Amino acid sequence: MSDSTAVGQPQTIVFTDATVRVSPSRTAVSELWADDGILTHVGPQRPPYPDGALVVDASGTTLVPLQVESALRARPPAGRSAYDLVPGNAATLAAVHGQVDESRITRMLVVPPRDLLAVLVGGTVVAWRGSPTRPAGSAGTAPGDPRLGTWVDLGKAMEQHLTADGRYSETRSGRRNAYTGRFWLDEDRITYLDDQGFWAFGEFVDGVLHHAGFVLRR
To answer: What is the pLDDT along the chain (218 residues), one digit of tens a residue?
Structure first.
């Protein structure tokens, strides 16, 4: 399978022999199927696979939900299971080499490129084998996109600046450019690749940006 195979719109993807963190506290060794952006099967091996499916050997890899804890708490209780890796939910997850424990998922998932097999958001492959699959930003991002600009967590003295060229910078406790890097926007998700060499993740909920323990507003 070539890297170019993974690029594009939502497609049928099958991860085999994976450790699946169905939720942060529940683990299964199984296959995971995604079709047209939705999880369709999480369970025992079930070939034959659909024609044209991207079949990925995920042995030694943990599939984890991209759950941002403050975003989860911002949702009503009935909607919090939407992050779980179960059929019917969005195919939004990271495939990480090695084991990933519960606290790493719920507190702050940060992944070095060498440890990242894939990132999917709504079934679209955003990152593959540690590298992005498209230029930074978003194909539809324009200077007036409401997600761009400065986001602030006053309680933690943090500002995050998102610009239309797909770059971000953070000011922390008055220290400018404490973190800088590239970002990708997909649906209500933001995926970061920091210049210091790690991937991180965030989510927009009701006009608020949740990222790594920060709750940022315009």
So the answer is: 344 455 556 679 999 999 999 999 999 999 999 999 999 999 998 888 988 899 999 999 999 999 988 999 998 888 899 999 999 999 999 999 999 999 999 888 999 999 999 999 999 999 999 999 999 976 556 678 899 999 999 999 999 999 999 999 999 999 999 999 999 999 999 999 999 999 999 999 999 999 999 999 99
Tell me the CATH architecture of domain 149-216: Beta Barrel (2.40)
Q: Which pTM was predicted? A: 0.92
CATH superfamily of 3-132: Urease, subunit C, domain 1 (2.30.40.10)
Listing DSSP states for the chain in one string gives: --GGGG-SS---EEEEEEEEEEETTEEEEEEEEEETTEEEEEES--PSPPTT-EEEE-TTEEEEE---HHHHHHS-GGGGGGGS-STTSB--EEEEES---HHHHHH---B-GGGEEEEEETTEEEEETTEESS-SB-TT--TT-TT-EEEEEGGGTEEEEE-TTSEEEEEETTEEEEEEEEEEEETTEEEEEETTTEEEEEEEETTEEEETTEEEB-
In the chain, what are the domain boundaries?
Answer: 3-132, 149-216
